[in-house]
User: Fold this.
Amino acid sequence: MFQDLDATLRAMLGDAAAPGELRDADVSFDVPDKDFNPTRTTVDLFLFEIRENRALRDDAPLRDRVDGGYLLRPAPVRIACTYLATAWSPGAGAVRTDEEHRVLGALLPWLHAHPRIDDRFLRGGLQDPPQVYPLPAEVEPMREGMGQFWTALGIAPRPALPFTVTIGMRAFEQEDQFPAVQAIQAEGVLADRPVLAGRVLNSELAPVPAALVALVGTDREATADRAGRFSFPDVDFGAYVLSVRVADRPEVRASVSYGPDSQVHNVVLPAQ
Assistant:
């Protein structure tokens, strides 16, 4: 994934609309340490930080329509990839400084011109499958403590541009498939005459008539009608356990919390 982002940025810097200083320069992703000594004018994009962009986190699952149903999968994790962009010239003295500054001067507005990475630049796994979200990009302020960074690399500090692109990455492969909704049935209740009610349904959500429903711990029982409906009037609000018995099937129990705004409690029997 990160190598695909490298290839994407290389394509963006080599675009026909990019400044000539960028099109003519090599693009490297090597560590800019004391052993880095390019023989041609080079833009080096060193990936020095990878972190989750929590400000863009979305915990809502993605929904895709497939085979008459729906496929739910986790939203991609938003990963912020920060590059340190530097310019390198094989010249010496003032010639080198002038060329490096010209390249950086061309790079900065070109990066600012792309607050979102254009789809035409995307490469590899960033292109196929397509990214769920656009790829935001921004030039960031220089971090504190960069002097120690250059010291660790064994070279003198250089002018640099921190540049961050946020990509979407699947954390793991987990998909759940559900059938499409075929019908919607509203169950009416009355606030001034509450009733603990519901329906007994099989695993395909078809009604189960004649099921015997009981309130565990009481002597209250009800038999489901042809639509699978049952009801218990004159029951105090509170927590209950419904016991459902159907011929030739094991007993099924369901815990319910009965209240003014939670009067209907359906019981779905497991597949046999």
Remarks:
- The chain has two domains: 2-176, 183-268.
- The first strand starts at residue 26 and ends at 28.
